[in-house]
Amino acid sequence: MGQALALAQTVLYITAPNPRVGCVIVRDGRVLGQGATQPPGGPHAEICALRDAAARGESVAGATFYVTLEPCSHYGRTPPCVDAVVAAAPGRVVVAMGDPNPQVNGSGLARLRAAGIPVTTGVCFQEALELNAGFAARMSRGTPWTWIKMAASLDGRSALHSGMSQWITGAPARADGHAWRARADVVLTGMGTVSKDDPQLTVRDVAVPRQPRKAVVDGRLQISESARLFDGAEVWLFTAHDDPVKAARLARRNARVIVLPGPEPGRVDLAAMMRWMARNHVNEVHVEAGAGLAGALLSADCVDEIVAYVAPVLLGDALGMVKLPMLSHLDGARRFDFVDVHAVGKDVRLRGRFPDRWQTLQTAATPR
Amino acid sequence: MGQALALAQTVLYITAPNPRVGCVIVRDGRVLGQGATQPPGGPHAEICALRDAAARGESVAGATFYVTLEPCSHYGRTPPCVDAVVAAAPGRVVVAMGDPNPQVNGSGLARLRAAGIPVTTGVCFQEALELNAGFAARMSRGTPWTWIKMAASLDGRSALHSGMSQWITGAPARADGHAWRARADVVLTGMGTVSKDDPQLTVRDVAVPRQPRKAVVDGRLQISESARLFDGAEVWLFTAHDDPVKAARLARRNARVIVLPGPEPGRVDLAAMMRWMARNHVNEVHVEAGAGLAGALLSADCVDEIVAYVAPVLLGDALGMVKLPMLSHLDGARRFDFVDVHAVGKDVRLRGRFPDRWQTLQTAATPR
């Protein structure tokens, strides 16, 4: 299963909106065939592995199939994989996670069992879910898996009062941040960051076959048409301000304006934005924004993980990482779990995850 | 040498102001004797190891002596260890670090070499220096090795505006903090913390043979005689305010007032305070203070390490970890190195160390 997960990792950037899946067919400790899901419309992992075995002239009847996700049992752009698996007559199928779509979870496994094939489930479940948290979130709850990337000093300062934030963390941390950008479907920022830094929001330090889509939360539709992030593919602009004239002008810069007003004037309905993105096939959102949007997303309960780079420096009187309402008691603070702590160059990367949100995914993806 | 270091670790709390030293005598992979430095006035590690070998009926002539610190060559409360080592006629002596006293470094090794004993130096040098950074700092630069213990949210907030700071971090992090208190000679805090929290400043979660001394920076000598920290052994109060009447009253609470006025009124000369402590045999200072004193110590360049516990929570609008002057450019920020990153319960401990200060110790302790 470790090898199947590693195969799934190799297609991290190309399967969206489909899940990243790997499959290895083994007999007597020997690999007969292996594969990973190809870009949408292409074959899924099980089919790739079967074709690989055929190309090697191997017979797979009676072999053990390791697959990181329950084989699909429905017609999409491709026929159901489970039929091909059953036809191959495996001796056993080992599955890491179930199909996270609550309406489908278990039907692939049921088909295998009905064909008399022994099925083992839940092997490397957490690792498989990590690879496809976004797919699982979209399928099970109708919103993308969303993380905020932050960079700050040890005392939580992300910029000086002068606005200077380049560079608190070092080059390896910034490159690692680009790897997180690269795996996401959407890189989201706020109008404050656009006006302050005029970022390109592209992936630069990682070789990727496609750039993630760019998106901006711009409540009052104040963005300048000369912003650098418009260079390239279509940009999504989420706004509360319905201004067809400006929207038309922005369309000429390849921007799509989506009007989703929230309860407060000039504020986007962030939860609706997340649902909109999931409907538009977004699995994973990488947020790279200032304290305002970061805090607003946290307050709106739109954040699943925090990817924070902490630099070995204390800055004292400088700008904070998140704007959040003042608390009167610590019980009011929502705690996450540190799930990964890692040195990255001279900095440290701390990944935090809200446990209730991970629990929901786990429940949805537990094989039935 | 690993075993000798482990022995030195066992006397972490009892050798001060002497260094923590371990010695293991080995022949053909067999331990003939071992020992660690005893409390002041008691035998040093080499003598303990020789006595242990004698008690076992082992002859140590020709054996290899592993010792974490260069054997002493001068008469203190005990005769020089190097004479006893030479008399034992070892086949070889392996030493981790030199004597950090610049006037003494090398003389113990020279005595061994003059006696024709082969000497190997620098084995596990960093680990040995870690154990005795305080001794090395006091000997080589005349100030204690000083760390600040901090606890904060991921966004660097150490307390709510309401003053509430109990408890941002969890019980395991607090217990680990007590282990750092325990190894120090002095636990230092500021008047702000005393008036806000009325702390006891004692070691509670670790079994220790002695409590570290308590000390307070109280520029205006405003401390109340009813403060809880006066319960117990003598407390040092560093002040800029010469008030013999109050000092006499405080003396009845077992407080010793040390007047060290700095350039600004009501401010203690913190560098002079550190020199005063070293003259009074303090090797290691554990600072547990609010943002004011923490920032002042950093600004006065009195800090060697930062021991920061980061909790998995974001607090936003709350109090910061350190008060430091506003910077106009990031180049002005003094960077440390993260030397240890560690999960402690649900929190993460990050240890930072200023590399120039460690370099100074390394230079002083390099065996000659």
Automatic annotation (TrEMBL), chains A, B:
Residues that, per the record, bind substrate: 165, 167, 181, 201, 204, 288
Xref: InterPro entries: APOBEC/CMP_deaminase_Zn-bd (IPR016192), CMP_dCMP_dom (IPR002125), Cytidine_deaminase-like (IPR016193), DHFR-like_dom_sf (IPR024072), Eubact_RibD (IPR004794), RibD_C (IPR011549), RibDG_C (IPR002734), Riboflavin_Biosynth_HTPR (IPR050765)
Active site: 46 (proton donor)
Cofactor comment: Binds 1 zinc ion.
Domain CMP/dCMP-type deaminase, first and last residues per copy: 1-112
Catalyzed chemical reaction(s): 2,5-diamino-6-hydroxy-4-(5-phosphoribosylamino)-pyrimidine + H2O + H(+) = 5-amino-6-(5-phospho-D-ribosylamino)uracil + NH4(+); 5-amino-6-(5-phospho-D-ribitylamino)uracil + NADP(+) = 5-amino-6-(5-phospho-D-ribosylamino)uracil + NADPH + H(+)
Positions of Zn(2+) binding: 44, 72, 81
EC number: 3.5.4.26, 1.1.1.193
GO biological process, one term: riboflavin biosynthetic process
Metabolic or biological pathway: Cofactor biosynthesis; riboflavin biosynthesis; 5-amino-6-(D-ribitylamino)uracil from GTP: step 3/4; Cofactor biosynthesis; riboflavin biosynthesis; 5-amino-6-(D-ribitylamino)uracil from GTP: step 2/4
GO MF annotation list: 5-amino-6-(5-phosphoribosylamino)uracil reductase activity; diaminohydroxyphosphoribosylaminopyrimidine deaminase activity; NADP binding; zinc ion binding
Cofactor(s) in the UniProt record: Zn(2+)
Binding residue positions for NADP(+): 151, 193, 197, 290-296
Coiled-coil positions: none
UniProt KW keywords: Hydrolase, Metal-binding, Multifunctional enzyme, NADP, Oxidoreductase, Riboflavin biosynthesis, Zinc
PANTHER family the record matches: 2,5-DIAMINO-6-RIBOSYLAMINO-4(3H)-PYRIMIDINONE 5'-PHOSPHATE REDUCTASE, DIHYDROFOLATE REDUCTASE FAMILY PROTEIN (AFU_ORTHOLOGUE AFUA_8G06820)
The family this protein is said to belong to: In the N-terminal section; belongs to the cytidine and deoxycytidylate deaminase family.
Function field: Converts 2,5-diamino-6-(ribosylamino)-4(3h)-pyrimidinone 5'-phosphate into 5-amino-6-(ribosylamino)-2,4(1h,3h)-pyrimidinedione 5'-phosphate.
Protein name: Riboflavin biosynthesis protein RibD
Biological classification of the source: Bacteria, Pseudomonadati, Pseudomonadota, Betaproteobacteria, Burkholderiales
